[in-house]
User: Fold this.
Amino acid sequence: MIDLLVKILINAIAVVVAVLVIPQIAFPAAHDLLKLQGSWWQVLVVALILAVINTYVKPILKALSFPITLLTMGLFAFILNAVLLLVVAYIAHLVDIKFTIGGFPPGFTADSFIGALLGSIVISIVSVVLGLLNRGRRIVT
Assistant:
């Protein structure tokens, strides 16, 4: 249970960093979180959606796309991460959370795919760094 909460917190921090760094990602709740007001709880909902997709959907898609990833020498993994981030934006849109990437949803453009690609890279880097700090917590306890 604690590991799930830590994963959601790491994802929330990674999403906020991606919103601050990538101009194509618009998420007003992330700015509310920095001010500790308004709809900051929406960041936790998006982080929960991201954690569920990364835990259950991503391993299946990675296994299915292994031949393509092998042919592209691992570059297809970046595309898979970007598509999954767009799925997170779509699910957030379905539950009425304003998390858009380059205007997606509703409209899909090259700008939304580039924003998702850059956002997934930033989220991955922040998650890895914070995950390494979390590993120290698991060794001590």
